[in-house]
Sequence to fold (98 residues):
Amino acid sequence: MQVSEETFMGVPRKDIPWCPAIDYEKCDYCMECDEFCPHGVFERREGEEKKLVVAHPENCVVFCKVCAKTCGPDALSFPDKTETLELIKRLREDKRDG
Fold:
């Protein structure tokens, strides 16, 4: 499933680096984050060991962190919200000036 919005605050979603990062040292592979997320951000990969990956980062809703609350402590982390907001503002200004 893809996110229906192609832009966020006037900026192309693909230009906003917002998605979870998985700390595999802390992840217990409960898969609750994958089951919770309705946007198809995660993907389960089978192999020598079961692994969860962020397969579709562009589907992550900017500033959403709810999936991180479904799994173990600090298994998922996100970019800094303030820095991301500043980047969005700069990209919007560049678009206006360009």
Remarks:
- The helical segments are 32-36, 81-97.
- The mean pLDDT is 89.
